From TrEMBL:
Residue ranges occupied by any Mannitol dehydrogenase C-terminal domain in the UniProt entry: 298-482
InterPro entries attached to this UniProt entry: 6-PGluconate_DH-like_C_sf, 6PGD_dom2, Mannitol_DH, Mannitol_DH/Oxidoreductase, Mannitol_DH_C, Mannitol_DH_N, NAD(P)-bd_dom_sf
Span of domain Mannitol dehydrogenase N-terminal: 40-288
One Pfam family cited in the UniProt record for this chain: Mannitol_dh_C
Name recorded for this polypeptide: Mannitol dehydrogenase family protein
Gene Ontology MF annotations: oxidoreductase activity, acting on the CH-OH group of donors, NAD or NADP as acceptor
Keywords: Oxidoreductase
Length: 504
């Protein structure tokens, strides 16, 4: 069979260590020998974002002959992670990173990962590898909703069935946190130092949240172990930023077009940022020499990014999908959605965000506008709108609370919540179905449908909204905006908000 790419006429090279020299000359490849690398990091949750972000920073150091003892071992605790493991092991854990700059496309092969542990019930291989003292950092990208947080209290959810399982069966953990506790128990028994736990998820105070999960779970079975982890371990906060779309047929085809047959390529924008609190208990790579920022003020960077960029994604994704717009860049070409983002972020989010060195909130909004508008990034409204039940309270509602405390407008944020409620009815304005797009979709959809007649039903989800439903200012604004969305349509509701004077 002729496997030549129909666009270029050349035969793509199947990615592996043995074929690196056969790749097209314009695809950069590792300048280091994989045989010289040794593992120092286990990363749990090996999706596209990690490979385009954290792994790339390490790869950049390795290209300089640095950090060769900090290579990554991949891991997963979900059955679905096994498919990624198979794909990556078949190509020696190499990844083609394709940068989608508006001015052009470039590609490089990243080799910072050297192994992927078996994905198995009980996680024995993962526990054993993390117990090895050569592993000095365990990092995670397990999504914002993966930390077992009780939304009503912010505390660790000790009643969750997965957590109860891990407490009852500490040697056969089901969760990443149970596996970390099991490995730390072994290290303590052997007289070894703990590893640093490094969250790379979009959570404000992600290090503190990771500490809470690990220490709380340990305390359910062994108070002394919990105290040792809490005092001797380290859980730095970090802020991560790079837009990385999901990989589908178009991305696989693009890799082939560039000359490489990669079963798991990653496309990404031409922007990365990583701000890390420099608190590690067992050393770290010199990530700052690869462009990361070490700062004691991670919270300010987090707030700017989570409120404006991640919050901005939530502002535009739901109305975009309801209107049948598939690409994020195309939502930014819709004048009303673009105006909605600009007004809500300027009037209702930015006033509560502190500047960081070299960047004020409105300049950051301009940067976000350009990034969202990049036509080469084929990010979808569906991907961005996924898991609103975690992302709305994580990225939107904190600005609502700030506005209510300060007495500043929250009408646009109420509209954003109303648009999400409309989205969860599961039907677009053209009548097509919105496929389930939230872990809680089965309960969200009937609630959203009931809210058409009684908006208070939506705000009564206290595990998402807390006491906001009791606040008359927000409750009235939400009811008004949701009624308008259902009665007049998405565009009319947005236009009404955009055209309303802030003082009216």
């Amino acid at each position: 069979m002729d496997e030549r790419d129909d666009t270029t006429g050349r035969t793509p090279v199947r990615l592996s260590l043995a074929t690196l020299g056969d790749l097209p000359a314009d695809i950069a490849t590792p300048g280091y020998r994989r045989a010289d690398l040794s593992a120092g990091i286990v990363h749990i949750g090996l999706g596209n974002f990690h490979r385009a972000h954290q792994a790339w920073y390490l790869h950049r150091l390795m290209q300089q002959g640095r950090a060769v003892d900090w290579a990554i071992v991949g891991a997963g605790v979900r059955a679905g992670d096994a498919a990624m493991r198979d794909r990556l092991l078949a190509q020696d854990c190499l990844t083609t990173l394709i940068e989608l700059d508006p001015s052009g496309i470039s590609a490089e092969v990243c080799g910072a990962m050297i192994d992927f542990l078996p994905v198995e019930e009980g996680n024995a291989a993962l526990v054993a590898r993390m117990a090895d003292p050569a592993i000095r950092i365990v990092s995670l990208t397990v999504t914002e909703g993966g930390y077992y947080i009780d939304p009503a209290t912010g505390a660790f959810d000790t009643g969750h069935e997965d957590i109860r399982h891990d407490a009852a069966h500490p040697d056969r953990p089901r969760t990443a946190f149970g596996a970390m506790v099991a490995a730390l128990r072994r290290r303590r028994a052997a007289g070894e130092l703990p590893f640093t736990g490094l969250s790379c998820d979009n959570l404000q105070g992600n290090g503190a949240i990771l500490r809470q999960a690990v220490v709380s779970l340990a305390r359910m079975t062994d108070g002394d172990l919990a105290d040792w982890i809490d005092s001797a371990g380290a859980f730095p906060n970090s802020m991560v930023d790079c837009i990385v779309p999901a990989t589908g047929p178009a991305e696989l085809a693009l890799a082939r077009e560039l000359g490489v047959e990669d079963a798991a390529p990653v496309t990404h924008e031409n922007f990365r940022q990583w701000v890390i609190e420099d608190v590690f208990c067992a050393g770290r790579p010199p990530w700052d020499e690869a462009g990361a920022t070490l700062s004691g003020s991670v919270h300010d960077y987090e707030a700017m990014k989570l409120r404006i960029l991640n919050g901005g994604h939530q502002i535009i994704a739901a109305p975009g999908d309801i209107l049948g717009i598939q690409a994020i860049a195309d939502t930014m070409a819709h004048p009303l959605i673009k105006a909605l983002l600009r007004k809500v972020a300027t009037a209702e989010i930015a006033p509560h965000v502190r500047p960081v060195p070299g960047m004020d909130p409105l300049s950051y909004l301009d940067l976000v506008d350009r990034r969202f508008s990049n036509p080469r990034i084929k990010d979808t409204t569906r991907r961005v709108a996924f898991d609103g039940s975690s992302r709305q309270p994580g990225f939107i509602l904190p600005s609502v609370h700030d506005g209510l405390r300060a007495g500043t407008p929250v009408d646009g944020l109420a509209l954003v919540s109303a648009l999400w409620a409309r989205y969860c009815t599961g039907v677009r304005e053209d009548g097509t179905e919105i496929a389930p797009n939230d872990p809680r979709w089965e309960s969200l959809r009937p609630t959203a449908q009931a809210a058409q007649d009684d908006p208070g039903v939506w705000l009564a989800m206290r595990d998402i909204y807390g006491d906001l439903g009791d606040n008359p200012v927000f409750a009235r604004a939400f009811a008004h905006r949701l009624g308008m969305v259902h009665a007049d349509g998405v565009e009319a509701a947005i236009r009404d908000y955009v055209d309303t004077s802030p003082d009216s």
